[in-house]
């Protein structure tokens, strides 16, 4: 086969390394598309050099940790917008689609590594390379796509920070309203009060210094989850008191929330890239399938029984529904606020890594710029939370805009682009399947965003007529 004309492609660099091995850095530099048919097929797994590779079990735990975050506490609220029967079926379907989307990303990454003769690629690198090694007319878009995904990942994690601020403010308000009702401080004021503490913790620049905070957050969330599950299963009301199928107009909120809760697309490639046996990531049982079966099961159980217990009164986080007259329940709410505070810095690390690499490289004023940019981003996150402090709607909006795009639309698109001139399957089933996923992602994007924004506008309109807003 004749060698194709070489085209310059931007150097690919990993943007989302959330694993404990910070020493591993991608060194991808795609500079050739030559494929020699008489050579032995390149095996990227044999060329990976990872200083501290993760075992199969360790990789499963990493993926579970990424997916089983604060989103699981929002599942009862999702079921409220779907009903019990629709919620169970919807969670299963959404889980299968999200799992398949991740499979497409990983499989595309592994295949393009063979063509590019590179040991590993991150999510952004994979997206760019899918175009670079895809149809000839799209190859020149590889660098642009990679950069676009880089910035999209940063924007996604910044949006998650807004959710965390609302989470912290809501949790603290729930407790303070019980023990100090005379102050009557609004949730917006509590969000503002988080500004200085969050700015301070986000000045930590080295990931290794965040490890103690992450470890503490992991321990506390287990405690909170145990306390929450106790109250969920105590004196459950009969199922007949709950809706089996909610109004169709509310389904987009359900879908957006579930996508927000389940998607961990930003950490999938770092986990796969640092496995000792990456060939065990896909397949059956495989790391991905085992992890997602556990995730889907837990999300379904928490969502189902959380809605059965609290009904239409369930809030954006089920911890906010815990009894007000029991100190254990109130303590769990405060602990959840602490978990979100510690986790905020870890989530903040991801967009700052990209911003530092792209904007602050070799700057003589790097220290001042670091402090300034970190302060500005935290301030923006808090300002957005103050403007829209409804946790349920914020989660739904973030899920609709960012996670439906990065978690569903992008994986289906890059898989289609890469396989366009290769193998679309019998009767072009790959194209048909991916088109369906793209349609679902667009429905979630448009409908979820619309309903969430309408709800936020109504909340904002109501708050403007409340004289107590931002006052004691």
What does this molecule look like?
With 472 residues, the chain is mainly α. It has one domain: Amino acid/polyamine transporter I (Up-down Bundle). Helices cover 64% and strands 0% of the residues. The chain contains 16 helices and no strands. It has helices at 44-47, 56-67, 75-80, 84-116, 123-132, 142-179, 187-193, 195-201, 211-233, 251-262, 265-273, 287-310, 327-359, 366-387, 391-419, 429-463. Helix 2 (56-67) runs antiparallel to helix 11 (265-273) and helix 7 runs antiparallel to helix 14. The longest helix is centred in the middle third of the chain and has 38 residues, at 142-179. The radius of gyration is 23 Å and the shape is globular.
From the 3D coordinates, which CATH architecture would you assign? Up-down Bundle
**SSE series:** HHHHHHHHHHHHHHHH
- The total of helices stands at 16
Q: For the report, how would you describe the main beta sheet?
A: none
Categorize the overall geometry: globular
Quickly count the domains: 1
Give the distance, in angstroms, between the N- and C-terminal Cα atoms. Answer: 75 Å
CATH first level: Mainly Alpha
Beta-strand share of residues: under 5%
- Low-confidence stretches are 1-37, 467-472
Which value, in Å, is the CA radius of gyration?
Answer: 23 Å
Membrane topology: Multi-pass membrane protein
Subcellular location: Membrane
Domain Amino acid transporter transmembrane: 54-454
InterPro entries: AA_transpt_TM
């Amino acid at each position: 086969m004749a060698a194709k004309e070489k085209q310059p492609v931007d150097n690919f660099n990993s943007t989302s390394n959330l694993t404990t091995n910070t020493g591993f850095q991608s060194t991808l530099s795609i500079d050739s598309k030559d494929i020699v048919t008489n050579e032995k097929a390149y095996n990227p797994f044999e060329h990976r050099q990872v200083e501290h590779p993760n075992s199969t079990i360790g990789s499963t735990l990493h993926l579970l940790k990424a997916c089983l975050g604060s989103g699981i506490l929002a599942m009862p609220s999702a079921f409220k917008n779907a009903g019990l029967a629709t919620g169970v079926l919807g969670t299963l379907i959404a889980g299968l689609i999200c799992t398949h989307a991740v499979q497409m990303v990983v499989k595309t990454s592994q295949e393009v590594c063979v063509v590019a003769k590179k040991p590993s690629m991150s999510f952004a690198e994979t997206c760019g390379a899918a175009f670079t090694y895809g149809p000839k007319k799209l190859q020149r878009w590889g660098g642009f796509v990679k950069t676009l995904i880089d910035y999209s990942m940063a924007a996604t994690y910044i949006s998650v920070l807004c959710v965390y601020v609302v989470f912290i403010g809501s949790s603290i308000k729930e407790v303070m309203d019980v023990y100090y009702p005379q102050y009557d401080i609004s949730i917006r004021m509590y969000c503002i009060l988080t500004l200085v503490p969050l700015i301070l913790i986000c000045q930590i620049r080295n990931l290794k210094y965040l490890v103690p905070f992450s470890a503490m957050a992991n321990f506390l969330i287990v405690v909170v989850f145990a306390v929450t599950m106790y109250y969920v299963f105590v004196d459950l009301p009969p199922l007949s008191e709950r809706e089996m199928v909610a109004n169709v107009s509310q389904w987009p909120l359900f879908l957006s929330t579930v996508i927000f809760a389940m998607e961990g697309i930003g950490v999938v490639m770092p986990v796969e890239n640092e496995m000792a046996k990456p060939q065990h990531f896909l397949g059956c049982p495989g790391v991905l399938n085992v992890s997602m079966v556990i995730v889907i099961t837990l999300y379904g159980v928490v969502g189902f029984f959380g809605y059965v217990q609290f009904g239409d009164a369930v809030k954006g986080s089920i911890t906010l529904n815990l009894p007000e007259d029991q100190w254990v329940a109130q303590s769990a709410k405060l602990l959840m606020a602490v978990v979100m505070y510690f986790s905020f810095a870890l989530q903040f690390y991801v967009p700052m890594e990209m911003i530092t690499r792209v904007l602050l490289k070799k700057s003589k004023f790097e220290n001042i710029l670091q402090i300034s940019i970190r302060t500005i981003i935290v301030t923006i996150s808090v300002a957005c939370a103050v403007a829209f402090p409804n946790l349920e709607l914020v989660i739904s909006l973030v899920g609709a805009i960012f996670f439906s795009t990065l978690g569903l639309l992008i994986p289906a698109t890059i898989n289609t682009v890469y396989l366009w001139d290769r193998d679309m399957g019998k009767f072009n089933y790959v194209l048909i399947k991916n088109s369906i996923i793209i349609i679902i992602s667009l429905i979630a994007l448009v409908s979820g965003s619309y309903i969430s924004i309408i709800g936020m506008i109504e909340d904002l309109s109501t708050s403007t007529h409340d004289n107590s807003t931002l006052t004691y």
